[in-house]
Amino acid sequence: MTDAVTTVVSIKPTALLRQLLRHKLAAIGLVIIVVLALLTALAPVLAPYDPHAQDLYNVLSGPSPAHWLGTDNVGRDLLSRFLYGGQVSLLVGVCTIMVAAVIGIVLGLVAGYLGGAIDAAVMRITDAFMCIPPLIFVLIIAAALGPGIHNVAVAIVLFGWTGFTRIVRGQVLLVRELPFIEAARAAGASPIRIMLKHILPNTLAPLLVTVSLSIGGAILLESAVSFLGIGVQPPTASWGKELRTGLNYLELAPLYSIVPGLLITLAVIACNFIGDGLRDALDPRLRGDNR
Amino acid sequence: MGRFVAVRLFHALIVLIVVVVLVFIFARLMPGDALLVAVVSSNIDVDTAKAVATLRAQYGLDQPVYYQFFRWLTDFFIGDWGESIGTGEDVLDMFLERLPVTLQLFLWAAVWAYAIGIPIGIVGALRRNTKTDMALTTAALIGVSIPAFFEALILIYLLAVLLPIFPPSGFVPFGDDAWGNIMSMAMPGFVAGTGGAGLIARYVRSSLLEVMRQDYIRTARAKGLPESAVVRHHAMRPAMIPVVTVIGLAWTGVLGGLFIIEVIFALPGLGRMTVDAIFQKDFPVIQATLIVASLNVLLVNLAVDIVYGYLDPRVRVQ
After folding, report:
1. CB distance B278 to B286 below 8 Å
2. Is the Cβ pair A269, B142 closer than 8 Å?
3. Is residue A291 a contact partner of residue A280, using CB atoms and an 8 Å limit?
4. Is omega for the bond preceding A235 within 30 degrees of 0, making it cis?
5. Which residues does chain A have within 8 Å of residue B294's beta carbon, measured at their own beta carbons?
6. DSSP assignment of B113-159, as one string?
7. Of B35-39, B66-70, B183-187, B243-247, where does the model show the most confidence?
8. Would you call A257 and B275 a contact, using CB atoms and an 8 Å cutoff?
9. Across residues B127-135, what is the average pLDDT?
10. Which residues of chain A have pLDDT under 70?
């Protein structure tokens, strides 16, 4: 039921990037991600106003030359808030998946390489985690840990490792019996060395796909949780939270909620486009498809 | 086949046990606060510590953890799901009361997902690598990626605020006003089905493309059948087999989406009940929904695995 490639492929990074840029949707995704990352990273330079500066004489003003996207319900400049809010959304997406990936990779390597009871135990626990709807999982953990974006990040990590464990373990099973692993074992390499030096590099291809898709998923989860009111605390902005507040003023100031929603959507779509492009680039059966 | 089914059932049983333990742990992460909230909000004058202790005893929280676990588990399976801490209502009653709304939403979502997803996938595969295919593939990928709350927002803005065709939120029971019910469910149902539609479209497309490459399709063409007959009689049925696997994925996706969709559209279903319960740390309710939702996913995946093993013998040998 996994979505990623299951063949053993190794590919050079430069060749991969070239393939990716030739894939139209993936190229679009890369451009979107780079632009969004630059915009939010450069928020201190680009933002026309302090994102927390209120102007109570000028609330929900609508777009104007002074405030391109208008102001929010306490007169803060929306453009500035969206630029800063992106930092939270994107950073949480990337950082949580990095941590989750490390946990998932270790568990997947151990389960796949050692096999037997350890493998069975790890995989059943993974399956159990995957049965619980992600949003509810993250909401419960975040609610139990208390308010704050850090707790949402912890919750996403606690859920996020499952996909990686599955992919890596499947990949390890494919590689494990190949002659070069046997050769390494015969040469006296330790299990840890075999896992890290010989097996892990061969799981990188499908891992990349999973990383890309998972970052999109994590951004989506963070925004959904912020949308529901757990997550960043005022006055910090995040796209999900701005969207939620803006929803109350949908008729007066539609941009207040539509722009952050669009930004989240763009980020998620870009991650999925890249993930798709990677999959096509890494799956030899699909090569030659013109997209 | 018997061995295959037995192994799957055995795995599912173990997963079920792990799920139950996980749910129990999750729910235990929060009860203290919930009791405090319940005490503070009900009587202001009482001795808080004493009242909390009474409530702890009432919910069995003063017993050893393993006792609580087995007590809860046995009670759950005989239909005693406990009482909501917030309202004191019987959780099973709350559940049954809200179930029809969620089922209705689920049904709408499934209908939309298949009605849109399958034709898009077929057309995409038949017009492979044309502009139409490109547009449909992109649309499917956007459908998979778009956050439900953003899609809901756009639809509400376009079809309820700018053009007031549908009500922006709220639920009308079918018994009260059939037309009003349809109007109130159309938008949320569509939003709930979008992700599934995109997923199904992608699977149908790639599966049909795979089949169209087979030798027997070339044979069918070679004997002079028109293309439409080739597709209808020779390609469609084998192409639909792998699509079975996507039912599980789409199901999980739809189930996960229901929570937020019910909140946005103010539908009084299980999803909204759960989100409210999480905010109120109402753990008996959270436990119940978690178990039901996870069990649902588990059973659907099990069914998909078994059906797939039945349809495609290669899967059984693993």
Report:
1. yes
2. yes
3. yes
4. yes
5. 128, 131-133
6. HHHHHHHHHHHHHHTTTSHHHHHHHHHHHHHHHS-HHHHHHHHHIII
7. B183-187
8. no
9. 88
10. 1-11, 283-291
Q: How far apart are CA B3 and CA A260, in angstroms?
A: 52
Residue pLDDT, tens place only, B30-71: 655 566 666 666 655 566 677 777 777 777 777 777 888 888
The three-class DSSP label of residue B113 is helix
Distance of CA A25 to CAs A273, A280, B220, Å? 6, 11, 34
State the pLDDT at residue B76.
84
Residues 19-78 of B with CB under 8 A from A: 19, 22-23, 26, 29-30
User: What is the distance between the alpha carbons of residues B82 and B84, in angstroms, rounded to a whole number?
Assistant: 7
List Cβ neighbours of B180 (8 Å cut-off, separation of 6 or more): B172
Q: Do B150 and A264 touch (CB under 8 A)?
A: yes
Name the closest residue on chain A to residue B256, using Cα atoms.
A133
Answer for the pair A108, A161: CB distance below 8 angstroms, yes or no: no
CB A270 within 8 A of CB A33: yes
Q: Provide the token pair at A110.
A: 């151990």
B207 three-class SS = helix
Q: Do B19 and A135 touch (CB under 8 A)?
A: no
Check B149 against A258: CB less than 8 A apart. no
Copy the structure tokens of residue A186: 């015969």
Q: How far apart are CA B279 and CA A228, in angstroms?
A: 10
A58: left (phi over 0), alpha (psi -120 to 50) or beta: beta
The answer, for A124 touching chain B at a CB cutoff of 8 Å, is yes
Q: Which pLDDT score, from 0 to 100, does residue A262 have?
A: 92
Residue closest to A227 by CA, chosen among A89, A33, A59, A47: A89
pLDDT score recorded for residue A153: 93
What value does the mean pLDDT of chain B take? Answer: 84
Domains of chain A: 13-286 (1.10.3720.10)
pTM across the whole model: 0.86
